[in-house]
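Hi Y.,

Following your request, here is the sequence exactly as I used it, all 192 residues.
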Amino acid sequence: MKNVPDAPLALDCRAGTIVGAIFVTGFMGSGKSTVGQAMATRLGWRFADLDDEIERRAGQSIPSIFEERGEDGFRECEHEALREQADRAAQGTPLVLALGGGTYAFAPNRRLMRAVGPAIWLDAAPETLWERVRHEAHRPLARDHEAFLRLHASRLDSYSKSDCRVDASGTPGEVLGRILRLGWVKRLIADA
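Below is the corresponding structure, written out as tokens. Let me know if you'd prefer a different format.
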């Protein structure tokens, strides 16, 4: 895995780019929804959870989508929900969007997001993530420890393509504090 610093990589180099959205990515248990909601509140932006948006658009739960349409069908629904949210953000409704754990693994999704705003990777050790989710019944991918670790390892390369990496091993408040100390986030707050 390449080392991604706890600071923006190329974001500040995108001269003239207006940030319409911040995309929060990471593996299950990293705190994407909790931290994303807190960040949106701090910025005064709208918050959305992509999994909730997928279910709203499809009129069914994610497990039902997987059962009826398979992973490919789910990924199509995911991409369309992401496009809808990115379009709204690009039209002037600033957004913090918590992604599903696999959303950032797909290049078309990354390209779509790059046109609208940065992605923040909430990263923590796999054992920390496992301890956070292993007893949660609504997480079918967190039932088998070895499969969990393999899936985590398979997504690291994709997550490392994020604009910045933030240590998510602490409490949600600590993680939010790390994000708010990033230079470009400080500027967004100052401009709000």
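The chain has one domain: 18-191.

Thanks again,
Q.
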